[in-house]
Amino acid sequence: MLQERELKALPGWPMVALLLLIVPILTVLGFIWSVNAENGYGIAAAIVAFTIDMVCLGGFAVTNPNEAKVVQLFGVYKGTIKQPGFWWVNPFTRRRRVSLRVRNFESSKLKVNDQDGNPIEIASVIVWRVIETAEAIFHVDDYEHYVHVQSESAVRTLATSYPYDAHLEGQMSLRMSVVEIAHKLRDEIQERVGKAGVEVIEARITHLAYAPEIASVMLRRQQAQAIIAARQKIVEGAVGMVEMALEMLSAKHVVELDEERKASMVSNLLVVLCSDRDAQPIINAGTLYQ
Fold first, then answer.
1. Which residues contact 218 (CB under 8 A, 6 or more apart)?
2. 103-210 belongs to which homologous superfamily?
3. Segment (H or E) for 8
4. In the chain, at which residue ranges do the beta strands (DSSP E only) sit?
5. Tens of pLDDT, residues 177-235
6. How far apart are CA 19 and CA 55, in angstroms?
7. Would you kindly state where each structural domain of the chain is located, as residue ranges?
8. Distance between CA 189 and CA 186 in Å, rounded?
């Protein structure tokens, strides 16, 4: 397993002065002297020095901020240049650019079955960056494509592990447990792409819906559940109000009620408080015993 190591490159500007000024001047002077002296070896040495100088000009490299250059020499990994600047390295090396910037992409809408077997549509956005250049270049064929494929695979796995809606108290669901599901998704993707030298910064669901063929049925079920939950709250509040009314009437001695009148009062109050329509006043001309 290759591990990233820093490559100590030579500063570029001193090499510019050396290769474009000092060496050419010395080479020209040596060539002229060799011609005047009719020295064949000197002429050949000047030509070779000039050729080497021209070849060395191909060793210059620029590293931008949040960028790295992975350097190989005849297939052998020599190191990574991460420090921004103008550098010179062996001209026979291969320098591959790797961006260290934070990137993000949104997966396509995937159609999968949740834990309950209901078909759903789900999509996510993943924020990531390269932190280990050697692993990104040498451990996988194309690290960007690898991240995209593994992220979609992780989204599918997560969607099948949880229900769309929670049916039990405290149960995690894709729709309600937004923060927890985002953390689970990030950890799942990180486990898959770690070998490519990639860090997943954030992952969250951006689209979640039932598949069109069951959407209308599920909408009615959600509406029914909402109505039941609302009725339950209304009944709980109504019972509390009736209890408070009876206690206050008894404490202030406003009226003495026997059990039958209490039952009638409780019934009337519950009807008024729990009804979804406005109460209609009725004048009672008789009594409960007539």
1. 118, 164, 210
2. Band 7 domain (3.30.479.30)
3. none
4. 10-11, 60-63, 67-73, 76-81, 85-88, 93-99, 103-106, 110-113, 119-130, 198-210
5. 889 999 999 999 999 998 899 999 999 999 888 877 765 666 666 666 666 677 777 77
6. 10
7. 10-99, 103-210, 215-274
8. 5
